[in-house]
Amino acid sequence: MTIDATDREIIALLRENGRMKMVEMARRLGMSRSTTMARLERLERTGVIRGYTALLSDEYDRAMIRAHVSLTIAPKSLAAVETALRRLREVRQLYSVSGPVDLIAVCAAESVAEMDKLIDRIGLIDGVQRTTSSVLLSTRIAR
Fold first, then answer.
1. Who's near 53: CB < 8 A, 6+ residues apart?
2. CA–CA separation, 86 vs 90, rounded Å?
3. pLDDT at 89
C-alpha cells in the first residue's frame, strides 16, 4: 500500500498521542472528522497501523529487571519458537541476528526471581536448544 503525506501526518499525530480524539486530529489536519476517520480506518484495515500500545513512565520502566536472552534454535523450529515467544508478555522485542545465536529476546520482569522463571520458561520451549542471558545493570547511553 502506498501512503501519502496526509497518512504520514496521521501516523505522526498518533505517535505523539495515541489517544488523540478524532475531532482534535481532524482539526490539526485541516480535514473533516469523517474524512480523517476514513483514512485512519484504511490505515488500520491495510495493516499500516497494526495496533495501539501504552507508553510507560521512565520511573516504572527503570524499576524493571531487563535482560537480553540469546537463543540457539533447532533447525526448522524458528517459526514455532517465534510463535511461543510472542505469547510471553515479558518478551518486549525479538531480533533475528547473525552469528553464533539465532535470536535475541529483550525481556523485562518485575524481579530477579521473575526473570529467572522467564528464562527457564524460554529454555523449555520446543526447538530452543540453548539460551544465554545477560541482565542489564544500567543504561549508559539512550538516544
1. 18
2. 9
3. 94
The ranges assigned to domains in the chain are 5-45, 58-136
Residues in the chain: 143
46 grid coordinates: 491495510
Task: List the chain residues with pLDDT less than 70.
Answer: none
- CB neighbour list of residue 40: distance below 8 Å, 6 or more residues apart: 10, 22, 25, 49
pLDDT of amino acid 143? 78
- The confidence score (pLDDT) of residue 58 equals 79
CATH class of the domain whose range is 5-45: mainly alpha
Q: Is the pTM of this model over 0.85?
A: no
The secondary structure of the chain, three-state, reads CCCCHHHHHHHHHHHHCCCCCHHHHHHHHCCCHHHHHHHHHHHHHCCCCCCCCCCCCHHHHHHCEEEEEEEEECCCCHHHHHHHHHCCCCEEEEEECCCCCCEEEEEEECCHHHHHHHHHHHHCCCCEEEEEEEEECCCCCCC
Q: Cell 529483550 identifies what position?
A: 106
Q: Considering only the top CATH level, what class is 58-136?
A: alpha beta
